[in-house]
Amino acid sequence: MFSFILEKFFGVSNIIIVLLLSVCGFLYYENHSLVLENNQLKLTKEYLKNEIKTNKEQLLKQNKAFENLKLELKPKEALKEVSKVKEIFIKDKNCESELKAYKELFKILGAKQ
């Protein structure tokens, strides 16, 4: 009777069934793990999308602030051409000293630029 029970439980067909059930259990466990990982990746994707959206909004705000701070540059007005004076007529000694003072002042101002 004992040998009959062993034959019944450890027959070839039963071993195949046990192996198939084991493989099915393993695949079920792997599938469940992959589903959990997929859900985690979906959550991470949504979080990153939200972060990108927030960063874009902040960037737009900064760009608007920069636009408001930007100086509005106007084109320089055309410089008036100044012709050189070839000869200066001096009235008296007082004018001559005043002219020398102006020449020195212009030299100093010209050197600073």
UniProtKB/TrEMBL annotation:
Domain of life according to the entry: Bacteria
Coiled coil feature spans: 38-69
Transmembrane segments: 9-29
Keyword annotations: Coiled coil, Membrane, Transmembrane, Transmembrane helix
Name by which UniProt lists this protein: Uncharacterized protein
